[in-house]
Amino acid sequence: MARHDLRRATPHPDFMVAIEWADGSSSKVDFRADTARGGALASLAQPAIFLHRLFVQSARESLAWETSAGLVDFHADELWQRSHKSVAAE
Description:
The chain is an alpha+beta fold. Helix content is about 30%, strand content about 35%. A three-stranded antiparallel β-sheet has the order 1-2-3. Strands 4-5-6 form a three-stranded antiparallel β-sheet. The protein is globular and about 30 Å long.
């Protein structure tokens, strides 16, 4: 079970995703490095997929994109750490 639950996620054209957490807080996650990695994540570099196929999975424990190769997902706890690490570095 995730320590952090997602409420809502909004993708942006700059490959950032604004996340609203179940506790009422919000943060942003930068997916530019993920899209540049290639492999299974290569399809996320396509704006039509990144912007229009993102959803919060029903258990609210991950974000996922539906791609032609299958689901690409990121666990909520990983996203929480990524988004709060960048805030702490500022």
